[in-house]
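Hey,
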Amino acid sequence: AAAAFILELPLADVPFFMDPEETWWARFQDWLATRCFAADYYPSREWCAENGVEYRDPPAGYSILSSLSPRHEGVYHSVVALDGVMVHDPNPDRRGVLSTLDYIAITKAAP
């Protein structure tokens, strides 16, 4: 739903990528490429520190922000962020996420 919001598409036009969960990223990238878009992953500061990866500030513009859901223990949820700050939760209760796990920036692909 967050990708549909960012790309201004009807929700029905965006596939469910999380089944099977192990290959969602490749399927998401492939689907975006067919629409001349690409995705870039921005892990959290904590993950970067734990894994020795250089941290990048949250992406400028719209992105998908993911973290744990406040509704269901141990379940992840994604919302829309603008310049790193949540601006839209596609869930009707609009409770967002508990913290920041990562961001995914969606950009126009290079020709």
